[in-house]
Specification:
It contains three helices and no strands. By secondary structure, it is mostly helical. The protein folds into two domains: about 40 residues; about 45 residues.
Length: about 100
C-alpha cells in the first residue's frame, strides 16, 4: 500500500512540474515574440498646450518679465516630457517673434 501511495504522489508531482514548465515556456515564448516585434506607440501624443495669456495681476509686470515667465513654463513642459524639443523650439520662436 505504501508503494502505491508513493507512486501516486510521484505522478502528481511530475504532472505539476510539467504544467509549470509548459507555462514558463509559453510565457518566455510570448516575451521573445514581443521583443522581436517593433514597438508601436500605444497612445497618441496630445497636441502641445498653447501658453495661456497672463492673468490680470501679471499684466502689471513688464513685457520682458512675462516673456521670461512663459519661456520658463515652456522649458518646464519640455523637461517634463509634455513638449518635444521641436515643439519647444516652435513655441519659443512664436513667443520671441511676438515681441
Amino acid at each position: 500500500m505504501g508503494l502505491l501511495r508513493t507512486a501516486a504522489r510521484a505522478a502528481v508531482a511530475a504532472s505539476v512540474v510539467g504544467n509549470v514548465q509548459r507555462r514558463q515556456q509559453t510565457r518566455w515564448a510570448a516575451q521573445d515574440a514581443a521583443r522581436a516585434q517593433p514597438v508601436a506607440p500605444t497612445h497618441e501624443v496630445p497636441p502641445a498646450p498653447m501658453p495661456q495669456a497672463p492673468p490680470p495681476a501679471a499684466a502689471a509686470q513688464s513685457g520682458t518679465q512675462v516673456m521670461i515667465d512663459q519661456l520658463t513654463k515652456l522649458g518646464q513642459l519640455r523637461d517634463a516630457g509634455v513638449l518635444t524639443p521641436e515643439e519647444f523650439e516652435t513655441q519659443k520662436q512664436r513667443l520671441l517673434a511676438a515681441d
